Amino acid sequence: MEVIKRLRQQQIRDILAMRAIHTQQELAVALRERGYRATQATISRDVAELGLFKVPRDGQRVYSLPSQPDQPETTAAERLAMVLRDLPVDIRQAGQLLVIRAVPGSAHAIAAALDRTGWAEVAGSIAGDDTVFVACTDRPGRDRLRQRLLRLATATH
């Protein structure tokens, strides 16, 4: 099964290199055209594992691959900063949670990038289509994390 996953993810890389993909549904259709059937849940996992994120192109938002192997490796925090800077996000507190709202299709990329940082304040995250719930270790940690995320989202390139 791991071989099929690797082949499918390579197809996703090839598809994104050749054409603009706006939604996970569009990606599923492109994969089907190449003989790969995948559920929405599988595609969501692939998007997160590949580190895909949406970028503006020709007035629309399309999926993009992270930096290429010949480019310097980015840290998890830098990756999260790139994702947050490229997306309009709203970060709100809700009890011991942070609720991050962004454009449709971007939540998995945000959650995956956030989880990879290994920050002590983050107990875990759950991503939907456009919303990420971040469980924080405590309220002071939640406040620190919110401020850090807001700084990353508004930092200049």
Describe the 3D structure:
This protein has 157 residues and is α+β, with helices and mostly antiparallel strands. The protein folds into two domains: 2-64, Arc Repressor Mutant, subunit A (Orthogonal Bundle), CATH 1.10.10.10; 76-154, Gyrase A, domain 2, CATH 3.30.1360. Helices cover 48% and strands 20% of the residues. It contains six helices and six strands. It has a four-stranded antiparallel sheet, with helices on one face. The chain has a two-stranded antiparallel ribbon with strand order 1-2. A hairpin with a 2-residue loop joins strand 1 and strand 2. Helix 2 packs across helix 3 (40-50), helix 3 (40-50) packs across helix 5 (107-117) and helix 4 (76-86) packs across helix 6 (139-154).
Which sheet architecture does the biggest sheet show?
4 strands, antiparallel
Q: Give the strand line-up of the largest sheet.
A: 3-4-6-5
Shape: elongated
According to CATH, the fold-level topology of the largest domain is Gyrase A, domain 2
The low-pLDDT segments are: none
SSE topology sketch:
Blueprint lengths: L1 H17 L5 H10 L6 H11 L2 E5 L2 E5 L11 H11 L3 E5 L2 E5 L5 H11 L4 E6 L3 E6 L2 H16 L3
Antiparallel strand pairs: 1-2, 3-4, 4-6, 5-6
Helix pairs in contact: 2-3, 3-5, 4-5, 4-6
What attributes characterize this protein structure?
alpha+beta, Gyrase A, domain 2, Arc Repressor Mutant, subunit A, 157 residues, single chain, elongated, two-stranded antiparallel ribbon, 6 helices
